Amino acid sequence: MLNVSNVDLYYGAAQALRSVSMQANKAEITCVLGRNGVGKTSLLRAIVGQQAIRSGEIAFDGHVLGREAPYARARRGIGFVPQGREVFPLLTVKENLQTGFAPLKRSEKFIPDHVFELFPVLKTMLGRRGGDLSGGQQQQLAIGRALVTRPGLLVLDEPTEGIQPSIIKDIGRAIRYLKEHSGLAILLVEQYLDFCRELADKVYIMDRGEIVFEGKAEDLDRPEVRKHLTV
Ligand SMILES: Nc1ncnc2c1ncn2[C@@H]1O[C@H](COP(=O)(O)OP(=O)(O)OP(=O)(O)O)[C@@H](O)[C@H]1O
Ligand SMILES: [Mg+2]
């Protein structure tokens, strides 16, 4: 489904990704873990087309994405929930969700029911401004907006960051539901180990721009694996 091979990415002279290779498959949750600044967001920005890569290849559904722009990748079915959520503060919840219509055909420009089934709070707040929502509600809105684009691959960058535990649980349930019921490929970047441990089918750990471990969620209990994550 998603196939990243030997990707190098630079910011000027600084190399942020070093020959990164990884895959994410349909109906699976793939988790990328790593400390601050190891290149997790850079990897996701390369996948969604927000940052150009120097070398290597990223393919989605058999198409090599090359220099394709983010909107073209969204149209192919890559949905993105960015770190920090990037909700539009002055738009209403409904308008924020409608920004997800951009890559869709006319007949698909509606908000699918499962968005409100997964996050009922959004339905009750449709007329409120994005900026008036709590952090956890904004995170649910950002995920809802990505789902409006009808993704085949949902990419989430630290969805639990700064969110209260009860909403983290709701988000975890939603992610698992999406995997089981809609067969989405889910690529989840996290620093919250227990969240990944519970959800992931496959785990990658990054350190200083490289993938240093690939395995299963259970492997996160092994001390030699955990050492990559402790400061
Ligand atoms: N736009 C940019 N220009 C220059 N350097 C950048 C830029 N974005 C990130 N970097 C650098 O690239 C490296 C990787 O950053 P990145 O944001 O990918 O890490 P991260 O793993 O997502 O970190 P965090 O856990 O804090 O979100 C860091 O050293 C960072 O300072
Ligand atoms: Mg990041």
Structure summarized in a few sentences:
With 231 residues, the chain is of the alpha/beta class. The protein has nine helices and ten strands.
Report on this model:
The chain contains 9 helices and 10 strands. The protein is 33% helix and 27% strand. The protein is globular, with a radius of gyration of 17 Å. The protein has helices at residues 40-48, 70-76, 93-98, 113-118, 120-124, 135-148, 165-182, 193-199, 223-226; strands at residues 2-11, 14-24, 28-33, 55-60, 63-64, 78-81, 153-157, 185-190, 202-207, 210-215. It has a 6-stranded mixed beta sheet, sandwiched between helices. The chain has a 4-stranded antiparallel beta sheet with strand order 2-1-4-5, covered by helices on one side. The chain binds adenosine-5'-triphosphate (ATP) and magnesium ion. Residues 11, 14, 16, 34, 36-42, 83, 191 line the site of adenosine-5'-triphosphate (ATP).
Order of helices and strands: EEEHEEHEHHHHEHEHEEH
How many strands appear in the DSSP assignment? 10
Beta-strand residue percentage: 25-35%
CATH topology: Rossmann fold
Rounded to the nearest angstrom, the distance between the terminal CA atoms is 33 Å
Strand order of the largest sheet: 6-7-8-3-9-10
CATH architecture: 3-Layer(aba) Sandwich
Please outline the major beta sheet: 6 strands, mixed
Task: Please identify the structural class as seen in this structure.
Answer: alpha/beta
What attributes does this structure have?
231 residues, alpha/beta, Rossmann fold, six-stranded mixed β-sheet, 9 helices, 33% helix, binds adenosine-5'-triphosphate, binds magnesium ion
